[in-house]
Design a protein that fits this description.
alpha+beta; two-stranded antiparallel ribbon; N-acetyltransferase; acyltransferase activity, transferring groups other than amino-acyl groups; 8 helices; Acyl_CoA_acyltransferase; acyltransferase
């Protein structure tokens, strides 16, 4: 009799959960409780180099999405089953439906586009709805060919800020495979802090949970906004504020 390891069993379980969630098979809305003040529709966000927008079932996007999912370094750390082109196209079509957050368990997925090509995905999963404890979970994936260029940070930062500014979240969380050092480093760059055992039940499937609360995010935002003013005050007479910012960014 073939025996299945514990880790493989967990991976299969996570893959099954992902397949159900991707297909929109969540709790019936009547069981999900209250709603946000108004539906939050998927936006289009433009960052310095990227376009974040709802997924499309176009042929080019389908090809890019399949190519991304075929990367071993992607599937190693995500609970996604192996998909051929047909299943990958179906998965992409499922993702095109995730364009609204309104009730607990709603899911919103944004394509990360660079120069007209789909290179990744950033998602928000509404966990808690009540305004004083509203919580969303972030997820991200990027084609490894585009790693090391700051694209993942740029895209995830924009969606993190979106969650706090427009969805008015009190907390944003992220769950990643503990072995995925790049993802752990990204969470840290975004200001997330690993939850302690006292904060939550420790993950038993090899993942680790990070969290960023609104107060911590707001303090960091104010510090970023105040930094150019401090630099301007220190700039020697005759040198422009703009030049000071260029030097700092170099």
């Amino acid at each position: 009799m073939t025996q299945i390891s514990v880790s493989e069993t967990r991976r299969m379980f996570r893959a099954a959960k992902d397949a159900l969630a991707s297909a929109g098979l969540r709790r019936p809305r009547v069981l999900r409780g209250e709603r946000t003040e108004h539906p939050f529709e998927a936006p289009e966000l433009r960052t310095e180099r990227l376009l974040l927008r709802p997924h499309r079932a176009a042929a080019r996007d389908a090809a890019d999405w399949f190519e991304l999912q075929a990367q071993p370094s992607v599937t190693e750390f995500l609970p996604w089953p192996e998909r051929d082109r047909r299943l990958s196209a179906r998965h992409l079509r499922d993702r095109t439906r995730h364009v609204r957050l309104w009730q607990a368990d709603d899911f919103l997925a944004l394509a990360v586009e660079l120069d007209g090509r789909l290179i990744g995905d950033v998602s928000l999963h509404l966990r808690k709805v009540a305004r004083d404890e509203r919580s969303v979970e972030m997820g991200w994936v990027l084609h490894p060919a585009h790693g090391g260029k700051g694209y993942a940070t740029e895209a995830a930062r924009a969606v993190r800020d979106l969650a706090f500014e427009r969805l008015e979240a009190r907390e944003v969380t992220a769950v990643t495979d503990a072995r995925n050092r790049r993802s752990v480093a990204l969470a840290t760059r975004l200001g997330f802090v690993e939850r302690t055992r006292r904060d939550c039940a420790r993950q038993t499937d090899g993942t680790v949970e990070f969290a960023l609360d609104r107060d911590r995010w707001d303090r960091a935002r104010r510090e970023r906004e105040d930094r150019p003013r401090r630099i301007e005050r220190r700039t020697p007479q005759g040198r422009s504020h703009h030049a000071g910012r260029e030097r700092r960014a170099a």
